[in-house]
Amino acid sequence: MRPAYSERPQLVVEPVARLIEEFSRLPGIGPKTASRLTFFLLRAEPELAHGLAQALHDLKDQVRLCQRCFNITVEEFCPICLEPSRDQSVICVVEEPLDLLAIERTGAYRGLYHVLHGHIAPLDGVYREHLKIDELIARLRTEAVDEVILATNPNTEGEATAYLILKDLVPLGVRATRLARGLPTGGDLEWADIDTLGAALEGRREL
Questions:
Q1: Prediction pTM value
Q2: CB of 205 closer than 8 Å to CB of 178
Q3: How many other CB atoms are found less than 10 A from the CB of residue 131?
Q4: At a CB cut-off of 8 Å and minimum separation 6, what does 203 contact?
Q5: Residues contacting residue 182 through CB under 8 Å, at least 6 positions apart
Q6: Beta bridge partners of 64
Q7: What pLDDT does 181 receive?
Q8: Which of 112, 71, 70, 68 is nearest to 90 (CA)?
Q9: Cα–Cα dist 70/91, whole Å
Q10: Pairing between strand 147-150 and 175-178?
């Protein structure tokens, strides 16, 4: 028996269409890639899809921000802040947790971090109050810090963010440095190779 005629047949069933739509909302995922991912999961063993769903649930349910540096963690403080061998007198300021991971991979830095969670971008509605800048200044007033490395990305937004922070550092008398220009202007730290990023850390300059 043929199904009843529909003037506007739905070519994709609702659960599939919904997952394609959700995948499409992720950065770098277009409609075609979203469709491929969805149909891959549809054909895969149930354990794979269920594991992915559980991982996503745990990500939002368990991961939080470190109360000191705002790195991602599952405890009150992140492992880096809890590591006693770290140089407590130096703080490296980065835009995102991914930038922190990029620097850690170099093995060239053994100080602490402070994650801003973004950069100044007025055209996108991102201002000082949306970043963890005030929290950084509060740390500097209570911790014995000698140097702040402004490791924001070497692009227009990163430079503007670094300059804004620098104005707050001057009255505190804290030494401020910037990563050396071994990093490509306009690039992001997370895409820099280990050697370039390590050299930039070693060759940081006074501000």
A1: 0.78
A2: yes
A3: 21
A4: 179, 180, 182
A5: 196, 199, 200, 203
A6: 73
A7: 66
A8: 112
A9: 12
A10: parallel
Look at residue 196 and tell me whether its pLDDT is greater than 80.
no
Q: At what angle do helices 194-202 and 97-106 cross, to 10 degrees?
A: 90
pLDDT for position 190: 79
Residue 1 pLDDT greater than 60, yes or no: no
pLDDT surpasses 90 at 204: no
- Per-residue pLDDT band for 183 (boundaries 50, 70, 90) equals low
Angle between helices 31-43 and 46-62 (to 10 degrees): 120
Q: In this predicted model, what pLDDT tens digit does every residue of 53-72 receive, in sequence order?
A: 999 999 999 999 999 999 99
- Within the chain, residue ranges assigned H as helices are 14-24, 31-43, 46-62, 79-82, 97-106, 133-142, 156-169, 194-202
Domains along the chain with CATH numbers: 14-62 (1.10.8.420), 72-206 (3.40.1360.10)
**With contact defined as beta carbons under 8 Å apart, do 61 and 72 qualify?**
no
* Contact by Cβ (8 Å): 101, 92: no
For residue 70, what are its two tokens?
Answer: 């705002």
CA-based torsion, 75, 77, 79, 84: positive or negative:
negative
